[in-house]
Amino acid sequence: MNMKFYIKQKVVTLKDKFKITDEAQNPIYEVKGKFMSITNKLELLDINGNVLYRSNRKVLALLAKYFIYNKSGEEVATIKRKFSLRPKFDLSILGKEMELEGSLFAHSFNIIDHGQSVASIHKKIISWGDAYEIDIDDKENIELFLFVIIILDQVIHEKKR
Q1: What is the pLDDT of residues 93-146, one digit of tens each?
Q2: Vertex 125, ends 88 and 161: CA angle to 5°?
Q3: 146: exposed, middle or buried (Cβ count in 10 Å: 0-12, 13-18, 19+)
């Protein structure tokens, strides 16, 4: 059984802070950061405001490269954009190389580890904005994969802003 999470974004505003809810719409995580800053610093916080993961962008890179750190400051993942007309990435999560599959522009893609989906995001269109459903299949690293999916979605769509 996988865990489901939801993010709602209002059409009119893009905040530097948004909540992640469970299926009953209870807030369980929050993402804070500066999407349009030079280093694109982001943090994933639990409901009590404790930082679980943080990320930053390598500043002097031709193509976007993001580093994700756990609360001890250890690097646990990197996301590197590859040169391509369509969004393509090199993903390294917990020392493993993983792949992305799906329609990246349509907010619908999966992180694949050895042929198995470990996390995915799907855009759902509702009357007042968009909602994103995120499924995490990796029980041991739920928060990490949740944060990786959010960063990927931000990187894919940062050019549109």
Answers
A1: 999 999 988 776 667 888 999 999 999 988 776 555 667 888 999 888 999 999
A2: 50
A3: buried
